[in-house]
Structures are given as C-alpha cells and as structure tokens.
C-alpha cells in the first residue's frame, strides 16, 4: 500500500474508518532505482561453504533522477565494484547495505550496469528465521565435506522473505522485478537447476562444468533460485512445456507416482483461471535438510524431503499432493502477480492455500476437499493469538511474522467464503481479470477487490473491510422459537464479539429427513432474528451446514438431533460435527454409539470412517463388546488402508493378545500405515515377534508411521544398534507418547545417545528440534524442547570431560551449544 496522502485517500475511498496507529507501520519499499536485469557467474568453495561470485546488475531510476544506489548484500566480502565493468565507483558497505555513488545523475529510462566481484559467506549471516522458514542464510551447503556418509552433498538457495541477498547483491524487495541469467560452475558429477531454461553446458579442463541458465521474463528477487546435487531427473510434460522432477536416485522409480499429477494440475489451473501457465518450464526438486516445507521459485519449486514417498506410503495417501498444488498455484499468484509488500503477503499465500482445496475438490470430490478445509480451519482456530491479526496488516514485529496461519489458513478460508458469495463463474473470472491486469507487476489487496467488483458488479468493500483489513471472526449464539399456528421457526443469532460482522448465512430446516435451505443476511448488530416457514415442526435447524462462514457457533442440540443430522445431512462438516458430538455421548446413549459405529463402518467418505473409528472409547466395556466384530471386519476388508490401520489400532486397545494373529496376517499388506499399526499391536503382547516383523522391512526410508513403529520396537527391545533410527524419530516418539512412563522410556534413549560418542545421532536430534522450535516455542512444548537441548548439552559435556582427547565428543558439544544459541 502507498504511503502518505495517496494511502489516506484510498482508506477514505473504501470507507475504512477504524483509527489507525502508524507507529509500527511497514510500507511498501520506496522504489528509487528499478532492477532491469541480473547476470550472475557463480562458483563454489564447497568444503568451506563459500560462493565465489560475479554480478552484473542493470538498473534504471524509477521516476526521479538519482546519482546513488543502495543494494542489499548480506555476509559478503566485496573485492571489486565498478560501472559497466571498468569505471571504479565510490561505495560504503555497512549493515548489509552497499551504498554506491554513481558517476552522474541518471534519468528515468536511462539504464546503467554495476559490476561486483564478491564472496558470499552464508555462515556469517546474522538474520534469523521464522515459524515458517526456520533459517534465513539464503544459501545452504548440505554435507559439504562429505562427513555424513548417509547424506548427499547438495547446494540450494531459499530466498523468501529477503534472503537471496545473502548470495548475490540486489534490491531484495518483493516490489522489484528482474530478468536473469546465471552461469553455475560445479564439479561435473552434479546436476544444476535454476529459473528459466538451461541454454548450454560447458565442460572445463579442471573437472568442473559450467551450466548457463536464462530467464527472460520478470520476477521478484526472492524467487531467484539455484539447486545443485546428484539428482535423477525424471522428465514429463504439459502440452509442449517441459515438466521435470529432481529426486534422489533411490526415488527415481517413484517420482511420477509422487509428482505425476503435475501436468493435470497445470491444465486444471490454467482452465479455471482462464490464463495458461505463463512460464517456459516447470521443475520440482527435493532438497535435503530444507528449512521450510516448499518454495515456489519461478519455474523451479524446491520441496522438503517429506515429499519423497514410497509405494507403501502412496497407497495410503500422497500426503504431499496439496503442497504440490500450492507451490504450482503460486506461479500465477505470487510469481506472476506478486505482493508489493510483506504486509500484503496474503495476495500470494491465501490463493496458494486455497488452490489445495480446489485441486482436491476437482480430483477427489467435495468430502475430500472439505476434510482438508476443516484441518485448515482448526489450524487457524488453534492459535488464539491469530484472532487479533488483520489479514492484510501493516503492523508486525518482523516481516517473517506474516508467514502464519492468518496469511495462509484464514486467507484460504476467506476466499472460500467469497467464492460462495459470488458464485464460481464470477469468482474465477475475477481472478483471471486480476492476473491479466497485473501480470509481471507488484500488487496489493485492493487490486483483488477491484477485479471482483468489475466482473460481478457487486460492491465488496464490506467484505474486504471485515475479512482483509479487519481481524477476528463472528462468535455466535443461536436460539429457536416455534410458532405452530403461523408454521414458522424464528432463528435468533447473537454476536458476542467486537466489531460486529455482516455476512450471508445458510440455514437448513429439516422436516421428515429432508432439509430446506434458507439464505439469510446477518447484519452487523448484536442480535438478528429470522422468521422461516415450515410445514411440520422441524426435526432440526442446522446453521452454517457447510461451515462456509468462518465463525464460532454456540448451538446446543440434543443427541437425537445429532443423530438426525448425521443420518440425513449431505455435508461433510455437518456429518463430522455429528460424529464428534455423538462420540462424546457414546457411553451414555445407546443410540449415539449405534450411529458412531455406523459411521465407522459405512460412511461414504473414508476420512469420516477413520475419524469415527478414532473416536471409539475402547476403555468402556459396552463399546468394546459392540465394536469388536465391526472393527475386525473393517480391519480386514475396508477398501481404504488408512481406515484398516485405524481399526487395527483400536483392536490393539480392545485385546492385543486375541488379535495377534490378525495383526501378523495384516502385516502382509502393502500399506505402510497398516504395517505400522500391526507392529505396534504385536509389540503390546510380544516384543520378540514385533522385532521379527521389523526385520522383514527392507526399506531404509519407510516414512514417518512405519519408522516410528520400528523405533518404538527398538526401544522396547533395548536395541542399541538402532540409535540412528531412534534419533531421527525422537521428537515424533515423544509427541506420540501415551503416558509419562512411555515418555520416560524415550528420554532414556536420549540419555544413551548424549552420554556416548554418537555424532550423527546427536546431530539428528538437534536438527529436528531446531526445525520445529520456532513454532513450538509459542506453546508449552517449546519449553520442553529447550530443556531437552539444555539437558543434552550437560550430558554431552560430561561425556566430553570424561574423554578430553575425543575430538568427536567436543564437536558434538559445540553442535548442541550452537543449536541452543540459535534458539535464543
């Protein structure tokens, strides 16, 4: 958003009347000079984690004449700086800023090129990471000295928010756009990936190779990328555009099972947006030790290694599929039309978040997509601090704070509300108009509003003021009165929050098992009442049945009404709500248990079958007696493996001894989730038999569920040879503990590692803690993690003191100590 008078006028125009405090206001970066083109030549001192670079940066004044230039350049040694490769220029380099005095005053549209020779040293970077991106060095050397034999050597970059200036000088702001070319010199055994097209490769006499990548279109500096390593490249295509998947060689046979829907996604998104995929290729790379989930670098997304899955996991579910859709959709919303400031980040992230829903709805149907949206809603609701944050917010402590459940989760939920209000045709046509109007430009939320208003003819100030420029959500309490003589039901809604919201709302009235939907408009007042007709006294009044409206609703219903709701409601959200409420009453209401068991065995959606099974209270004798035979059938014959696995978990609670043979037989399933459940079931009654099952698993990377089951088996059997497996899964083990006694067992394994010379295992634990600590520190578990690190340091120091000549132990002490410093 613009500063000063223009900003204030725009506020008045949209009718945004709340008093504003600008004491911590973060405006869009003032554009004095504009990037035009960036040319880079880079090589590496890999063992010492340094980039040896040359940069030719072409710029021009944005509007006013200028004789100076400021570039972002973090953690660099500058050896040469001149104009056009020959004329030396005066400059200062302080606080990660290169301030350059140009040779004259340049006019707008008059370009000039700055040449800089430099060394980038990411280890010297001081800026911190965030909840979403837990490190901010920009350039990462993975296993650079080959010390970890189980990990490949890789180099990759991570630019968001403003970290690409850690490896090349630039104006590192999202409202800048530049074309680029880059020459990457690396040992010949490695492959490279960057933005745009690989134009040529040149083998050098010293055993290196130089790859030349060129990207002719414009994009923001934070989207520049390079990735280097020993990858297999699996080729695919969409229409005539190359699509590629860069994966570890182990995963080459499965790359298309993981990423193979990408061409279909490109086709679907191109169609609904009425805007074909705008770039010349699309590649996806999976990097080791990545500092976030995934990043939408233009034409070359980088994914965390959790993307890598084997057929035994994929048969359950491609857990990474929503992320694949998310990063692809950014190539329209984020890469093509880009937020002009981090305050406006939701113009990127809310759309990418909602694309996950769109794709799942398209491929799997409404229930599947609604399950995903329900998880997004819970993610937003879980953090109460989210409620005080505007979606578009110009006040934040740090720009990294914008990468949160408001920009992502709430942003996507808001778009779903707007889609339902406008209708699909207007919603998608407005998105298309926004893209076509703002392609290759920097944008803000008002551009979205204007596009949707232009298409629909509707004024949307009321919506944007509440949901984009406001915070919180409605907190509603309902009441009902019936008038038999008038044949009406009066629904009264009370809003218990400030400010009050206005919104459209759906209300279903059930008569004889059939709902009639009423569309009402709730005004921004404390109380709203709606008199709705009926023929027969309603069995049920169901407010917000699809949970389209993001709200909290206090709506007391009887168990009988929840039974009716589950039996007749078509909506996922209504069925799930009914299952949850009936589960609470399963031990006191026979009808509630009967319906819960029906949902577990025969709901049309496997996600709700799994949910219903997980809610069974097997500590209750009646529940045990009535559910056992049903769960046996589900465990052996349900069409979905995740449902089978959940049933096996419950059978283990009922009587693990009785069902041991069923568990062992189920171990033959190709599903890793089923295998994991069977191992844990057998482990309850026969630790040796469980260990024998584990020995049959030959996959060295079997995914989270199976790895946790294997690690638990190793701990119970006190198998010290499996400390590497235990260390990789330590946090997941701790989080899955069902009792303090079980947690203490896992801490015993930690003590074994920390009191001995186990460098890789120590590093695994520290790395896993550092990865999630930025999120965990907001909650009590963050304190536990800090205590784990402090205790680990103390134990490892004791081990080192007992063996003062052991350099390995000294190095481990330093690794833990460095980790603790990062947590401060």
From TrEMBL:
Signal peptide as annotated in the record: none
Cofactor(s) required for function per UniProt: Zn(2+)
Residues of the Peptidase M1 membrane alanine aminopeptidase domain: 262-467
Example GO biological process: proteolysis
EC number(s) recorded for this UniProt protein: 3.4.11.2
Molecular-function annotations in GO: alanyl aminopeptidase activity; metalloaminopeptidase activity; peptide binding; zinc ion binding
Reaction(s) catalysed by this chain's protein: Release of an N-terminal amino acid, Xaa-|-Yaa- from a peptide, amide or arylamide. Xaa is preferably Ala, but may be most amino acids including Pro (slow action). When a terminal hydrophobic residue is followed by a prolyl residue, the two may be released as an intact Xaa-Pro dipeptide
SUPFAM superfamilies: ARM repeat (SSF48371), Leukotriene A4 hydrolase N-terminal domain (SSF63737), Metalloproteases ('zincins'), catalytic domain (SSF55486)
Matching Gene3D superfamilies: Leucine-rich Repeat Variant (1.25.10.10), Neutral Protease Domain 2 (1.10.390.10), tricorn interacting facor f3 domain (2.60.40.1730)
Domain (Aminopeptidase N-like N-terminal) ranges: 37-223
Origin superkingdom: Bacteria
GO CC, alphabetical: cytoplasm; extracellular space; membrane
Entry keyword set: Aminopeptidase, Hydrolase, Metal-binding, Metalloprotease, Protease, Zinc
Pfam families associated with the record: Peptidase_M1, Peptidase_M1_N
Family designation: Belongs to the peptidase M1 family.
PANTHER family cross-referenced by the UniProt entry: PROTEASE M1 ZINC METALLOPROTEASE, PUROMYCIN-SENSITIVE AMINOPEPTIDASE-RELATED
Name of the protein this chain belongs to: Aminopeptidase N
Origin species: Apibacter mensalis
